[in-house]
Write a structure and sequence with these properties.
- There is one protein chain.
- By secondary structure, the protein is of the alpha+beta class.
- The chain is built from 6 helices and 7 strands.
- The chain has helices at residues 7-11, 18-48, 109-119, 150-160, 174-177, 182-204; strands at 53-56, 70-75, 86-91, 95-102, 130-132, 141-142, 166-173.
- A hairpin with an 8-residue loop joins strand 5 and strand 6.
- The protein is globular and about 45 Å long.
Length: 212
């Protein structure tokens, strides 16, 4: 079996220096992001009824410090994704993340957070999902292990704090990822996105989405 991800993909983030790391990122990882971008843009367009576009991270603003993670994002906006709820597949040196995120740039995040509080969509996610309040950090808390009130506190922070964010999805450790074939990885990603679509719908209060 040929795995989709390999150790070299993750080792990119151990490479010192901006130029060297970016060179390896472009060579090893970005082609996979481009392919996943095309694949899952079609998936989201079909399942939501809106045309989705892929956004592969280019890290253009970096001049000194090399990136510690990279990703492809999916959103129904061609020119950008940060102002709206968006899906991502990405890598840190330790794991892959497959997520739905609302970050601080989203102008309507107060309303979206209240929608989550009103409908309880996050609590309905299956076992194995994680949540975080900061998309810039690799760590996330298992949803099943959160104490009473912790989830609501995170969503309230998204609503009430200017820099508040909310991220949820699933992680795959580096060790597990390098054992997965392309078919296994894409099946896992699609299952994750399918489970996140009701949360996306709740954020935007969209009508019932068409079946794929």
């Amino acid at each position: 079996m040929t795995s989709y991800w390999n150790k070299q993909d993750f080792e990119v983030f151990d490479t010192p220096g901006l130029e060297a790391r970016m060179g390896l990122l472009v060579e090893r990882v970005r082609p996979k992001f481009e392919e996943l971008g095309s694949h899952y843009s079609s998936f989201f367009s079909a399942t939501t009824g809106d045309e989705f576009f892929p956004h592969v991270a280019k890290h253009m603003r970096r001049t000194v410090n090399p990136p510690n993670d990279s990703w492809v994002a999916f959103a129904p906006h061609k020119r950008g994704y940060k102002a709206v709820p968006h899906f991502q597949i990405g890598l840190w040196s330790s794991h892959i993340f497959i997520i739905l995120a609302v970050i601080y740039e989203a102008p309507n995040k107060t309303t979206m957070a209240q929608n989550l509080l009103d409908e309880g969509a996050i609590a309905a996610l299956p076992e194995g999902f994680v949540v975080s309040g900061d998309h810039m950090k690799p760590d996330a808390s298992p949803l099943a292990e959160m104490a009473d009130g912790e989830l609501n506190k995170l969503i309230v922070r998204l609503r009430d704090v200017k820099k508040g964010e909310f991220v949820t999805g699933r992680h795959i450790s580096k060790e597990e990822a390098i054992k997965m074939s392309e078919e296994e990885f894409k099946e896992f990603a699609e299952e994750t996105f399918a489970a996140l679509l009701p949360v996306y719908k709740t954020l935007l209060q969209k009508e019932k989405m068409p079946q794929r």
